[in-house]
Amino acid sequence: QGCVQQWKINHDYITDFTSNHDGTALLATCADGKLSVFDMRYVKQKGGTKSIVLPDVDPNWDPTQNQPQQQQPQQQQKKKSTWDTHGYTQSENQEDELLSCTFIKKSSKLVCGTQEGILSLFSNDIWCDVSDRYPGHPQSIDAILKIDEDTVLTGSSDGLVRAVQLLPNSLLGVLGGHDGFPVEALGWSAGRKMVGSVSHDEYIRLWDASFLNDDDDDESEDDEGKNDAHECNTSNKTVVSAAVKGGGEDSEDDWEDMDEDEDMEDEDGSDDDDDSDSDDSDDGKKPKKRENIFKTSNEEFFSDL
Predict the structure, then answer these.
(1) 177 near 300, Cβ under 8 Å?
(2) Using CA atoms, how far apart are residues 158 and 180, in angstroms rounded to an integer?
(3) Residue 33: phi, psi to the nearest 5?
């Protein structure tokens, strides 16, 4: 069938696009400073316009700057109605080029990289303006790759690939770099063991990213430990309740036997305290967190010298 739907509502080149978790909306960033949101359900509507093209002149541009104030509410109402009539809506002009985007926080937040090196965050279904901003990159953010619901990798024009935590905001460190050449794209390998980056230096570089999943593995192990502890407590309660139900002299003898066993275990445990402490000091080391593994910008700079 060829092209089944097209929109031309922006006034500069499209830089990136992504979809929400259920695929009902397509979101596109543009160099004109606007975020465009398209309704995928509109494509299947009968009688809908299959080609939506706006004039090349930006409707927000007013050469005379003498536009009557009473016409502004009508224009705002027209913008809101485009979602129902033509299957799209747009944000206000952010006065900065939007270059990359991805969803985080279980699709409740859309993070966009900008020309000024700011991470701009939009809240789901509130696309008119950003809800949060996180500056810090010295140059433009041309690529974004999601690690988990709180963390992303960014590729910047200064050639570095950084790990950034969002809400709360924190720069975790540098994964690698391309010797000052702009990073244009980032991507996962199969199994999420490596991250690939491409740059203007004509290199494709693969970075070891297995440690990026360490925190997720720790969380799953903690959950398994909690389940095992819960099962252990449940079994202990069952044994105690059975002993109580037995009643009489036999039950008292059982309790005395249990006390004697506990005393013997305490004596054995006191002898093994020193050994357990030494074992914990050697083998009980937890893996390093992401914050301690990443290089800082200064370390990355001097490592190339």
Answers:
(1) yes
(2) 5
(3) 90, 10
Q: In this model, does residue 139 exceed pLDDT 60?
A: yes
Point out which residues pair with 183 in neighbouring strands: 199
Tell me the DSSP string of 158-170: TSEEEEEETTTTE
Contact between 164 and 171 (Cβ < 8 Å):
yes
Give the Cα separation of 129 and 94 in Å (integer): 8
Assign residue 175 a region (left: φ > 0; alpha: ψ between -120 and 50; beta: otherwise): alpha
Tell me the two tokens of residue 281: 């000091």
Residue 95 · residue 80 · CB < 8 Å: no
Give the whole-angstrom CA distance, residue 113 versus residue 100: 5
User: C-alpha angle 128/133/138, rounded to 5°?
Assistant: 130
pLDDT at 16 over 60: yes
Structure tokens at 207: 């970075």
4: tokens are 């089944």
Q: Are 14 and 26 in contact (CB under 8 A)?
A: no
CB 107, CB 122: distance < 8 Å? no
At 181, the pLDDT band (50, 70, 90 cuts) reads very high
Distance of CA 125 to the CA centre of its chain: 18
Burial (0-12, 13-18, 19+ Cβ within 10 Å), 38? buried
Q: How many CA atoms lie within 13 A of 212 on its CB side?
A: 27
Query: Of 210, 218, 111, whose CA–CA distance to 169 is shortest?
Result: 111
Better-predicted residue by pLDDT, 293 or 265: 293
Q: What angle do CA 104, 110, 112 make, to 5 degrees?
A: 115
Q: What is the DSSP letter of 294?
A: S
